[in-house]
Amino acid sequence: MRLATWNVNSVNARLPRLTQWLETVGPDVVCLQETKTAQFPLAEVQALGYEVAAYGTGRWNGVAVLSRVGIDEVAQGFPGEPGFPDPEARAVGATCGGVRVWSIYVPNGRTPDDPHYAYKLEWLAALRAALAAELPAHPELAVCGDFNVAPTDADVWDPTVFAHSTHVTPPERAALASLRELGLADVVPTPMKGPHPFTYWDYRAGMFHQDKGMRIDLVYASQPLASRVASAYVDREARKGKGPSDHAPIVVEIA
C-alpha cells in the first residue's frame, strides 16, 4: 500500500495540481486536510479510481480520505471530540484495504494565551482517548495529517524564532508523546533536499527555497503497521511551481 497525507490548503483551488499528483504518484490511500469545502470535487477524483470519504462544512477546515483499495467504516469526527464551541470538520476515519486510517487537522492554537490553545490540547486529549478505544479492534492503524505541532526542536528551522509561540510548547509536545505512548510510531520521512524532513514552509518569499520550514505534518502508525513501512519521503516537488499549497505531501510505502 502506498499511503500519503497532504494539507492541500483548499481542494478546489488545488484541484488541477491534486489530480495531476494522484496520476503521477499513484497513492492507494490519501489523507487530505484543509479541504475548505462542503462540496468535495467527487467526480474528478472518482474518475481516477478513488472512493472518497469527505467531511467538510464550509470554507474552513475540512478533511478527506481517498482510497482505491476500498472504504469501509467511515466516521466523521470521533467520540468525545470537543468543539469551538461546536465540533468542527477536523477528523475523518475509514478502513482502507484492512488498514484503519484517520485524516486529521489539529487546531492551530493561535497563541498560548488564546482560548483556541486550550481547545487544541483538549482536542488532542480526546483524539488519544478515541484512538485508544480503536486500537484493539484495528491493530493496523495510521493517524495522518497536519498536527500543527513540531515534535522536537530539530523539526523547526530555527527554534529561537518560535520561542513563546504555539506548535513548539511543552504541553503540545507532551500531547504528541501521549499519542506515541499508545504504541504509535512516528514515521519520519526522508527529506528530498537538505537534512530536514520539513513539510510546511510559509508563503513569504524565500522561505521554501531557503528551507526555512517545519515538520508539522505527521504519520503515526501502530507497531504492526510501522513494521511494514519500507520507505517514506517528503514530496517537495508538489510544493513547487505556480499556486502550490504551503505544505508538501508525505508518501509512505507499506510492504
UniProtKB/TrEMBL annotation:
Residues marked Interaction with DNA substrate (site): 247
Taxonomic source organism: Allocatelliglobosispora scoriae
GO BP annotation list: DNA repair
UniProt-listed Enzyme Commission number(s): 3.1.11.2
Active site: 105, 146 (proton donor/acceptor), 247 (proton acceptor)
Classification via InterPro entries: AP_endonuc_1, AP_endonuclease_F1_BS, Endo/exonu/phosph_ase_sf, Endo/exonuclease/phosphatase, ExoIII-like
Residues annotated to bind Mg(2+): 7, 34, 146, 148, 246-247
Site, as annotated: Important for catalytic activity: 217
Cofactor: how bound: Probably binds two magnesium or manganese ions per subunit.
A GO term, aspect molecular function: double-stranded DNA 3'-5' DNA exonuclease activity
Family stated for the protein in its record: Belongs to the DNA repair enzymes AP/ExoA family.
Cofactor: Mg(2+); Mn(2+)
SUPFAM superfamilies (UniProt xref): DNase I-like
Protein name: Exodeoxyribonuclease-3
Endonuclease/exonuclease/phosphatase domain mapped to chain residues: 4-247
Residues at the site labelled Transition state stabilizer: 148
Keyword set includes Metal-binding: yes
Keyword annotations: Hydrolase, Magnesium, Manganese, Metal-binding
Domain of life: Bacteria
Taxonomic classification: Bacteria, Bacillati, Actinomycetota, Actinomycetes, Micromonosporales
